[in-house]
């Protein structure tokens, strides 16, 4: 499907995704892909389900001969320049058929989620003997290598190795739930990054990526240079940041030590953080961890603070043709034209890509800890 200089390609298959047959590709009406660092990526594909061809007497071709069906592996690629970008690599989990009637044309909608569904099918009861959290992630991810899953695991700052004579980590949930629970302990994120080529995906487990080269800037109220549709809104939630206070009895020394967070360790993106401006009014959470070392307790408390500091959210919708590339989540982007409070660098938390014939837009959700740019310019 080509539109406004943007080309979309769909691939599907029982195990290995292959390009759609031309007759099926022509039936694609629209595609929506939601990428986020807070939950698995999801997608929906709407097809024309009208009857035609030699099998029309039996049923719609999209139900009889199409590789797009329940439990199929689907890859959506979007090209705005030379190299395609994989938006999602996932599994179809639900189909909805609406038969045509009157002025209403028949439609088949397929929805699904990324490869996390493979890790979320079976609950597991097992022990991870002598494996600290990041090693547990590597051990679990390694079993899914035949599906083209490559792990990228960044160890936490404090690695609390569980000695077998003291404790043994256990798992009583699905592999996906276990990985996300481990990430939450450290204020980490866990998600799949599709690509860089069809059939490969990276399982990322580590801190939110708030460094590196930012993506081209989102331009607001800049005349011909504007690349957003409508307005960008900014919301500040002063109740979001929270400190952690409490105490822990070190599992090895037996000493009882106070636990308290002070400042976040994430690289700042704003000049006036909400957590600093409203320090006296911050919410406080009690630390209740037991059976761990003092170092691990401090690390978990710090993870709670780091995860909570993004109190400012910016939302809007990009004009895909005017932006000129594909905005991706889980990294940085610049903003200009919104004024000092809104300009500067932002962390892209979520992007909803909407593709149809003749249109491409990307609804975005950006986050950072406060107001004010800390960089004089952003990359255009």
Walk me through the structure:
This protein is mainly beta. The chain folds into 3 domains: 2-114, Beta Barrel (Thrombin, subunit H), CATH 2.40.10; 119-206, Phage tail protein beta-alpha-beta fold, CATH 3.55.50; 210-380, no CATH class. It is 15% helix and 39% strand. A hairpin with a 7-residue loop joins strand 21 and strand 22. Helix 4 runs antiparallel to helix 5. The chain starts with a strand and ends in a 9-residue tail after the last strand. The mean pLDDT is 91.
Sum this structure up briefly.
The protein is mainly beta and 380 residues long.
Distance between the termini: 28 Å
Number of strands: 24
How many domains, in number, for the residues?
A: 3
As residue ranges, the low-confidence spans are none
Helix content class: 10-25%
Q: What radius of gyration results from the CA coordinates?
A: 23 Å
Major sheet details: 14 strands, mixed
What is the overall pLDDT average? 91
Quaternary class? single chain
The shape is globular
- The SS-based structural class is mainly beta
Beta content comes to 35-45%
